[in-house]
Amino acid sequence: MRLLLLGNEAIAYGALSGGVAAATAYPGTPSTEILETLEEFKDRFVHWATNEKTAFELAYGAALAGARALTAMKHVGLNVAADPLHSAAYTGVEGGFLIVTADDPWMHSSQNEQDTRWYGLQSYVPVLEPSNPAEACKMAKAAFELSERLKHPVMLRSVTRVSHVRAPVELEPPAPPKWGRFTRDVKRFNLVPANARERRKELVEKWEKMRDVAGEYVSVEGSGDVAVVASGVAYNYVKEALRRLRISATVVKLGMPIPVPRKVAELAKSVIVVEEGDPVVEFQLRAMGVATKGKLDGYFPKYGELDIGKVAAGLAKALDLPYDPPQPPKPPVEPAPRPPALCPGCPHMGTFYILRLATAGLNPLWSGDIGCYSLGINMGQQDLITHMGSSVGLGAGISITGRHFVVATVGDSTFYHAVLPQLIDVATRQVPILIVVMDNAYTAMTGGQPSPSRAVPVEKITEALGLPTFVIDPVDIKRSVETVKKAVEVVKAGKPAVVVSRRPCTLIATRKARRAGLQLPKYRVDPDRCTGCGLCYNLLRCSAISKRPDKKAYVDPSLCVGCGMCAEVCPFGAFVPEGRRDRWLELWQQA
Amino acid sequence: MATSIVIMGVGGQGVLTLARWIGEAALAEGYDVRIAEIHGMSQRGGSVEVHVRFGREVYAPIVEEAGADLVIALEAVEALRGFRYLKPGGVLVINKRVIQPPGRWYELGEVVDAIRKSWPKTYIVPCYEAALGLGSALYENSVMLGFVSQLLGLPMPPSLDERNQAAFRKGMQLFQEAAAADQ
Ligand SMILES: Cc1ncc(C[n+]2csc(CCOP(=O)(O)OP(=O)(O)O)c2C)c(N)n1
Ligand code: SF4
After folding, report:
1. B 72-131 residues with CB below 8 A of A?
2. In A514-540, which positions are buried (b, 16+ CB within 10 angstroms) versus exposed (e)?
3. Of A341, A550, B50, B169, which is most buried by a Cβ count within 10 Å?
């Protein structure tokens, strides 16, 4: 069957036909759909883990016990799982173990541009790099056998333009899950120094053998004196750029760029190297004594994504050929930016408003985190965001300098992912910081995967640590402001405090309510009462409310979800409800 | 040779679905297809941009600046944003609708006139109006699909439900009217 599949779906189906038994992941764009696809298959162990490290460990453990296992994450997720990754290379595995990472060149939805192929070199784990969804499917399937043959983990590096590209894929039926059982071998699996030294020697030898294995993934096309080495998605741009420039070349396509096979160094003494990300292949080739023209000397751009034009320009420069591409036309009128915003009625909008009022006069430092609430940047309430857990981790570090009132805002999924250990530092050292857990019950930013917040409520944990904890409902703005003020007093007195702001993601709740046949209430503006003060559109910033030319507020009825937060903040009673809110608020809280 | 298309719109307008329909229709015709989607942040009310390429042999999944044969915009301000993708001689098709971005007001008529003047190969199509006529703004992407299918020589994709089929036919009809007016 030939279907238009997303690269991530193709990887999932490949793993299924490869007999994957255990699959784990923590969501992250552009990797999320791999596990979402596998979730439908109830005959295997499929699990959204608390973070990438626990996901990795579950799969690694299963593979040690002979099962075919997959773990998937976005590029930065591998930083979180880096510790067990390095051990996995030392112990090797019994069942096929496939680690999928999806890199995000030019950061469509990420905080950095990171080439995870480096991790392959650093940890001695071979890396497969597909150029399109069909190839990703085949590689994912074959990876399990390869891993079992080598008794070694195998990584598959995808990028946004493979994971989120839809292309025809030939589907094979799923194979039954392949489980196994653990066989004790202390010398191999217990990495005390005496054992680890032996494993290290083996690993270095194994790595040289893997160069030959990588040779099996080389294909050579075309002919000509010019040799172009291309890896992964870059191959596509090379094919079309060569055609555009009307030059014939020998194209050496690498399906396994880590480690670079010896064979490639033997093919040509001088090559052009085209790759997406860092010059990882180019570095290796230079180390093998091959003269290269690639990213290192600026033939191709050192940041951003490749495309046909950039590759054509680089090839032309390397070959001293003229290339004069058309210039992009300029629009007759400048388009205003349309940045992403919180959904109408988003609980985070209420929480930010409440926090602003409850900390008035304190000029807080807003230590932020990654999740939908990062859009609090639009309200000036996310001063720093660097990585998952930065809110409490960096916020506490700033707090100990003694000069700032720090408010750390963190989502529930991020709380379990990264903040739990930080809480213990905060509690044991009594760092004065206001930790606000925005508990919307889901991992919303990546599309609404489950979060552990209902099974393991945040306040149970913080109270066990002796941290004063206050639970609020973000749509109940006036009352919540008073509650948060109490938490603020605790921090002003030099101690940590926690606020749990609890209401599920509005996007998910409205979907469920509509399916249940509930008619959502709506709010409209009474223009006689509205004074145009702007509290609702400037401070609350509901995206269903806009400012009319006469400065009065306007609610777009097609966007309003009847949360009622506007009515809570308007001092003039200008927002008039149509329909009742109580039943909706109740259903919403259960969503 | 591949046909390169860029589709622009605002989150919630069905840009992804429109791209998939075009891809499905091309696949049904026996072409190779690549659709480059963007998921995540960019969908929350922000600008959305999807690339579609089809032909006998397609490799690259994305369209470069000045590389699109066709730019489809489901909204006029997004059409301005899509300008940079037009290759010399490329065609621009715009849904006659403005969704106001925050902080600046655009008059639909003025934007459309300015675009028409600076890019003569432009079609302004009342997809939004036609969709409302069919009962919901949700159909503006299927009206657009009907229109561009005529430009691209592609059939109706197999997965359209009945109401979207009606919208598709409306789009085809709008194309015939536009073509007749061109003569
Ligand atoms: C290490 C790492 N893994 C995954 C991601 C992708 N990611 C960004 S935010 C986020 C979680 C969002 O959930 P939550 O904190 O509950 O906030 P919400 O979006 O629900 O408001 C994820 C998974 C990331 N940026 N870094
Ligand atoms: S998806 Fe949910 S949490 Fe994210 S902005 Fe929308 S309502 Fe808020």
Report:
1. 77-81, 83-88, 100-106, 110-111, 114-115, 117-119
2. eeeebebbbbebeeeebeebeebbeeb
3. B50
